[in-house]
Specification:
With 521 residues, the chain is α/β, with parallel strands linked by helices. Helices cover 29% and strands 17% of the residues. The chain has 2 domains: 30-424, Alkaline Phosphatase, subunit A (3-Layer(aba) Sandwich), CATH 3.40.720.10; 436-514, Arylsulfatase, C-terminal domain. A hairpin with a 2-residue loop joins strand 14 and strand 15.
């Protein structure tokens, strides 16, 4: 038997071992709606304290359920985060370390286990794992990153183009499936949005939103990267590494543009040409003033950086309006059809995002804005309303939680923990006291790195030449500007954190060759 067949047989054996006998009242088991966006920063959610925008429908979910204040990812990049959520395993075990890897669809995932235990399963929206979705009765997903306007979807293997805006289309497709589902079965639906992923193309209804707003820059916007030399090589700065057409929506066919981050010159015209005449007219009218200001202003370098930041924030936040509206529509449907009381609804993002912190955009780094992700769960009668949970949770916990809620045995190979013990009055003393992170992609000038975060400290090891370490006291330095590594008074804390890191690497079966420089101080 070759290796591929062995893996397939082993996976099927494990899958069948987790199949429970169906109870007579199987259809009364809880439904699960798993809503996930792409790159939604907690800084852009009002219930997380945002002063940038309002997200009333997400806030309402938090009021009706639980907001997790310390939810983190294991690897802050899209495809790996999605694979972690599906499998409950770290990247080195599920096989997806960066966006170039192809997901092995033969491995055990929570949708497969739910389906084998009587659930009807579906996914609509972003998949981004290269292989075909498996474990679903219905799937209708975007190819690759997907497009904002008139996007292509792959409906059960067949290419389909829908006219409209991608967030609205994803929502409508999800509601359409809910209408047609088998009502004799409990269901699990994944609604995974493209927004607010780059290049942040808003619905034409919101192109004027925030026009009069002057967004405040984060406290660390003008970070000089002292003590963090590797940061000087990254290509994620708002000042220098955003594309005038792709990111800021300013046509620029002849002006000199430094090509950065692999954005081809024709990328923006291609997406514009997908629009209907009505969409294109509204789009061009919406950006008249922005284009005019760009070409009529003799910017100083500081003024140009500020213009870049304001344009970035406007469009990023505009796309979130549609996301928030979608969450409102989904919850309204559940309430209207008597499903809300018996449905766990989760809202999260595949990771956080930088909104100017350290002067950058994007994610990847283990710094707080990228490591942290929003997480809100609503489950009437099971989750006490309005709770804010301080436990340190991660996206490896999603799959075990869904299985636990459904009464399905959690495979021992899953590395996360069910969050159900935290649903009411959580005992934080028995919960984890640290989270482990590892980034593999080594792109855009961001080096491979790994680290450990506790309640008040963070230790990061960057695999640069030479290797570098960073230590932050998060309580005293929440913006992570002062690298304390090497300071004599923190020698004992560094030793403690390295021991914690090594213990977590053993626990999560990180390959031995990656566990280097543990004794370097």
């Amino acid at each position: 038997m070759n290796l591929k067949n062995f893996i397939l047989v082993s996976a099927m054996g494990l899958l069948m071992s987790c199949v429970n006998r169906q109870p007579e009242n199987a259809k009364n088991r809880p439904n699960i709606v798993f809503i996930m966006t792409d790159d939604h920063a907690t800084q852009a959610i009002s219930c997380y304290g945002s002063d940038l925008n309002k997200t009333p429908h997400i806030d309402r979910m938090a009021d009706q359920g639980m907001r997790f204040a310390n939810a983190f990812v294991t690897n802050s990049i899209s495809a790996p985060s999605r694979a972690v959520a599906l499998t409950g395993k770290y990247s080195h075990l599920n096989g997806i370390k960066d966006n170039h890897d192809v997901f092995d669809s033969t491995q055990v995932t929570f949708p497969k286990l739910l389906r084998a235990n009587g659930y009807e399963t579906a996914i609509v929206g972003k998949w981004h794992l290269k292989s075909r979705p498996s474990g679903f009765d219905y799937w209708n997903v975007l190819p690759g990153q997907g497009l904002y306007y008139n996007p292509e979807f792959i409906k059960m293997g067949k290419d389909t183009v829908y006219e409209g805006y991608v967030t609205d289309i994803t929502t409508d497709l999800a509601l359409e499936w809910l209408e047609k589902r088998n009502s004799d079965k409990p269901f699990m639906m994944m609604i995974h949005h493209k927004a607010p992923h780059r290049n942040w193309m808003p619905d034409t209804n919101y192109l004027d939103k925030y026009d009069e707003r002057q967004f405040p820059k984060p406290a660390s916007f003008y970070d000089d990267y002292e003590g963090r030399e590797h940061m000087k090589d990254q290509k994620l700065t708002i000042a220098e590494h955003m594309d005038i057409a792709w990111d800021f929506k300013v046509p620029c066919d002849t002006c000199p543009i430094k090509k950065v981050n692999r954005i081809p010159r024709n990328a923006y015209p291609v997406v514009l040409n997908r629009m209907t005449p009505q969409q294109r007219q509204a789009w061009e009218e919406g950006y008249v003033e922005e284009i005019k200001k760009f070409y009529s202003t003799d910017f100083t370098p500081e003024e140009r950086t500020d213009w870049n930041f304001q344009r970035y924030m406007e469009d990023y936040l505009r796309t979130i309006i549609s996301v928030d509206n979608s969450i409102g529509k989904i919850n309204q449907y559940l309430e209207k059809h008597g499903l809300a009381e018996n449905t766990l609804v989760i809202y999260t993002s595949d990771q956080g995002f930088f909104l100017g912190e350290h002067g950058i955009f994007d994610k990847r780094y283990m710094y707080e804005e990228s490591l942290r992700t929003p997480l809100i769960m609503k489950y009437p009668g099971k989750i006490k309303k309005g709770l804010v949970n301080e436990a340190m949770v991660q996206n490896i916990d999603f799959a075990p939680t869904f299985l636990d809620v459904a009464g399905v045995e959690i495979p021992g190979a899953m590395q996360g923990r069910s969050l159900t013990p935290l649903f009411r009055v959580p005992d934080l003393e028995s919960w984890r006291d640290a989270v482990y992170y590892r980034f593999y992609a080594n792109g855009w000038g961001v080096p491979k790195h790994h680290g450990v975060r506790t309640e008040n400290f963070k230790l990061i090891h960057f695999e640069t030449d030479p290797n570098s370490w960073e230590l932050y006291n998060l309580k005293e330095d929440p913006h992570e500007l002062n690298n304390l590594y090497g300071e004599p008074e923190y020698r004992e804390k560094i030793r403690e954190l390295k021991d914690k890191m090594e213990a977590l690497e053993d626990k999560y079966q990180i390959p031995e060759e990656k566990q280097d420089n543990k004794n370097e101080n």
